[in-house]
Specification:
By secondary structure, the protein is α+β, with helices and mostly antiparallel strands. It is about 25% helix and about 25% strand.
């Protein structure tokens, strides 16, 4: 144990009294505070009454064990900082992630509005359940004779406790570290990481340009994470990450190359200077060949203690106590956070652009509820029209169209952005020109004329009288009559 132990220079009397203060009222009433002159006598009396001795030993192990577990002098798991608070109830952690909702074109049609009000729309949602997957214990035996000898030296009790608890705590911390590191390999085996290929920066033969190339990709990715994307997480849900929440897990060799090449300042922007945001792990514990670094968030690990406590029992056969350190916990990782692995082996860095529309289909009438297909529109009625964009393979492109109508004379003739043509009862035109225009903009040629198609829709039926009539006998619309919303006679949002 190193010299910076929290128990260094703690006398037997002080340590005894520290433990005594946490024990039962019965113990404190029967065992007085220890002094340098009476400690030996106190211990002799304790050994004569086993229940009090057992209570003292349990307090010694549990209280001092907790102190040692938090000590800087003890080897601690560097990944334990990503654990959440211990679970007080239950043994499961549940994660939720919701997707995006689809926008709907605003439609003033009564039936459409009723469907919106009383219909349902469940968002895309995924959940993960993380349960206890580690249940381990560490046993150590302490005999009374060894404990008695510890009281013979002024600081012997503190040394005894340090050596007693060092082995199980350090063993527990190391095993927790190894189990946590295994998550990298398991996550990769299940197709979790997004891959970016970089030069072998961790090699001694790497050049300054190799380091700069790797760093440029990492810095660009940190800014990319601020935007929603389904690309960088295993669940392929639309997620993002704030720069201050990012964590880089890398090898000592990779970090050393950054430092040697004088890029430490660039590698450590302001939001990455917080403690714990850059964690070095020996290469062999990543468990992935060619892995140089992993960028993710602090929520990548899903870890929490469920049980962590000491238990004991006296063994009269050997006049000793058996102690067990029990540790039950959840050690898992999230599928809902961005996680990118930089390696020397492969690259997933490809951007897939949605297929380019090759044509727009002619406008056609949609069938009525009875299955009949209209051939015209009746004054004072409506018809549904359809047109969409297709790829060169004949598939729908996913891009929409905007609708407009021309040649109308009535203020009640309009078309929705879902392709529903309303014909006013006072419409004087015998035919209306309906136009569908592509919303797609070609990134290779933004100035290209959009695809479009038109259709002549015959208007039939008698004109409706409009009440009240003006003094000249000509009908005019009432101010209380329903009217199409402003701007809905053409243009507007694209239909999807």
């Amino acid at each position: 144990m190193s010299n910076d132990s929290p128990l260094r220079d703690v006398t037997n009397e002080k340590l005894f009294n520290m433990v005594r203060s946490d024990l039962s009222t019965n113990f404190q009433s029967r065992v007085p505070r220890a002094t340098q002159g009476h400690l030996s006598e106190t211990m002799t009396n304790l050994t004569k009454y086993r229940p009090l001795m057992n209570e003292f030993m349990d307090g010694l192990v549990n209280r001092i064990g907790t102190v040692l577990a938090r000590a800087d002098s003890m080897w601690n798991n560097p990944l334990a900082t990503f654990k959440s608070a211990p679970l007080e109830y239950g043994s499961t952690i549940e994660e939720y992630q919701t997707g995006l909702l689809h926008a709907h074109i605003y439609d003033h049609d009564r039936e459409s509005m009723e469907r919106e009000v009383f219909g349902t729309e469940v968002p895309d949602m995924e959940s993960n359940f993380h349960t206890v997957n580690r249940e381990e214990k560490y046993k150590i035996t302490v005999k009374d004779a060894i404990l008695r000898r510890a009281f013979l030296e002024p600081g012997g009790l503190s040394v005894f406790v340090e050596k007693l608890m060092e082995a199980p705590i350090k063993s527990d911390n190391w095993d927790e570290f190894l189990l946590t590191c295994k998550l990298f390999g398991e996550y990769e085996a299940n197709g979790g990481f997004y891959h970016m290929k970089i030069p072998a920066v961790g090699n001694f033969t790497s050049t300054t340009e190799d380091v700069k190339q790797a760093f440029r990709r990492m810095r660009a990715l940190a800014d990319t994470f601020t935007f929603l994307s389904t690309r960088y997480n295993a669940a392929h849900m639309p997620v993002h990450a704030n720069p201050e929440d990012l964590v880089i897990f890398t090898t000592p060799e990779f970090k050393a190359s950054i430092d040697v090449e004088g890029l430490a300042g660039a590698f450590n922007p302001e939001y990455m200077k917080n403690a714990g945001n850059i964690v070095t792990i020996p290469r062999e514990y990543f468990g992935i060949d060619g892995c140089e670094a992993i960028i993710t968030t602090r929520n990548f690990f899903v870890m929490a203690d469920v049980i962590k406590e000491n238990t004991s029992i006296y063994n009269p056969a050997n006049l000793g106590n058996n102690y067990w350190l029990h540790h039950h916990e959840i050690i898992s990782c999230s599928r809902f956070v961005p996680a990118v692995m930089f390696s020397t082996t492969k690259d997933d860095e490809t951007i897939t652009i949605a297929p380019k529309p090759a044509k727009i289909t002619p406008i056609v009438f949609m069938a009525n509820e009875d299955g009949t297909v209209p051939k015209n529109v009746t004054r004072g009625s409506l018809v549904a029209l359809e047109s969409h964009l297709e790829t060169d393979k004949g598939d729908k492109s996913g891009y929409g169209v905007t609708w407009s109508v021309e040649g109308e004379t009535s203020g009640w003739t309009w078309i929705t952005q879902t392709g529903v043509l309303h014909c006013g009862g006072d419409e004087e035109s015998d035919a209306l020109t309906v136009k569908a225009v592509s919303t797609y903009i070609d990134p290779a040629d933004p100035h290209a004329k959009p695809l479009s198609t038109t259709m002549k829709v015959p208007v039939v039926g008698d004109k409706f009288p409009v009440w009240p009539a003006d003094e000249g006998g000509d009908p005019k619309p009432s101010s209380d009559d329903p009217k199409p919303p402003s701007g809905e006679s053409g243009g507007g949002r694209s239909a999807r």
